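In full, the data:

***
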Amino acid sequence: MDFTFPAIGLVHSCFKEKFGIPRQPGLAPLACAEIELLPPYNDPAALEGLEACTHLWIQFVFHANKREEWKAKVKPPRLGGNKSLGVFATRSPTRPAPIGLSVVRYRGIIEREGKLLVQISGVDLLEGTPVLDIKPYVPYADCVLEAENDFAAAPPALVAVDIPAPLMAVCVDYWKRTSTDLAGLITQVLQQDPRPQYQQPDPERTYGMKLLDLDVRWQYRGEEGNYSIKLTQLLAAQD
């Protein structure tokens, strides 16, 4: 059976490309986004009662997944990209139906330039992500205290992030201009180590990602098992 669903909204995210996005929601609490509700779903009446919620479920489409065929087994980044699991035992975007599900922090509703926007944070959502539905997170039903997942029993270890003084000054200036904690956001994102886990840290290689309106670049220091990340550049992003 096949079904067709409308997109009720589009995500405007601090993450402008796939590389660097946290692999789960909530790992970077400062990562913010807005959901622009599309007609005819941009009716404020549809959002009445949302103010009672602190968190929301967001159902969305992995629209940037270019692989056309799904596979029964995939290689999750959490397992280093070297071990396969059944696709239904993972959160891989390469699925029979490329639908994602994230819990995010609800921040409020605003209207801007005639658009109705739902503000959220702690996101793992890419710019332009189509949203299929918004649902309230219900703690007594959705928080299962005895739940277990042996291959992801604990969050991954965090990597130390060094922001040199000249780049910290750039972050301070950015905060003064935009009220965005850029240094905090960069730290939360990079400490998750966006590098593919099957790659060894290479001190000669520079990694980069588009974050907000910036190109963020960094290098690794140290060796596997004992390394850190050093921010090397913050540049205006080029389209």
Notes: Helices lie at 139-142, 165-178, 182-190. The CA atoms of residues 40 and 46 lie 10 Å apart. The chain is about 10% helix and 35% strand.
